[in-house]
Amino acid sequence: VIEEGYVLALNEDNPVRTMTAAEIKAVFDEDITNWKELGGPDMQIMTFRLEDVDEYFTEESLGPQYEYAGAAIASLVKSHPGMVAFVPESLIPENPGLNFIEDKNITPGEVLGGTEWFPTATPAPIFGILPLLAGTVWVSLFAILFALPFGISIAVYMSEVASERVRGFLKPVIELLNGIPSVVYGFFGLIVIVPMLQQVFGLPVGESGLAGSLVLAIMALPTIVTVAEDAMRNCPRTLREASLALGATKWQTIYKVVIPSSMSGIASGVVLGIGRAVGETMAVLMVTGNAAVIPASILEPLRTIPATIAAELGEAPAGGAHYQSLFLLGVILFFITFFINLCVEFISSRNRAKNR
Question: What pTM did the predictor assign?
Fold first, then answer.
């Protein structure tokens, strides 16, 4: 819980021995100001960090190489019953006559159910992944809600309605959209979509979950359209002819015959589109506001799991708690996409069984 290599030192008369990461952060942010709120005596909390040393000691009392700093800090904590000192463990002398907050491992409940992501907080970083998980699900869900009806509609038009000339023009153009780098989509969203949403909804900032959803929907469209259109084109001609021969109209044939028989391919296109939406990094990072909070609406800034990994992995100390938590986020992202694949495979297998 406490930053590695540091301790939280208390006066020996202070009975408090354990604190959560959230409580430690609240104490040093001065949101908790009395030990009574933590189960201790009714007295004011005083915080001490190493950068506060000049307020209490002279350079002479600390020594030329800070060799007396540990003893001086221990004496300071002894003389202030309500003080808690966040100092390097190496500074603390032997038998200092102090009590220490017990350090412990961060529990799975604090990580999986935590509502705050603050990995750089000192003295105790906080790794609650709930805001990141909510942001990822929120953005991806709305992206698919936007992309799916448009994608299927365009695929139906290209497969069943458009002439060969129109299809021959649209198909390479749509497939070309797949090759555009995601940062270009992000730049387009930042320049066009974000200001538009800010103006339309009267938002203080246009970077929001809705902006991310719209950008992801645009990015997922080419995949959904291409795969779904290929699946509909592969529908046997005999099925279409049999439906028309029985008196069905063209649109009834599309709705009742072509789409159900192509459902396996359509589902594959949808899952590929969802996979791109869930795993997208740069475009989402640019337009969602990058705020690690649980969103109350789609119009608020948020942050997704891939964006968090991309933004923070380079700064996380290798092997530390922050580094490990980012890898945990990657594992969770893998299981999300794995679950989506399982669901689509289940749906596809049921449709194949019905069509036999």
Answer: 0.83
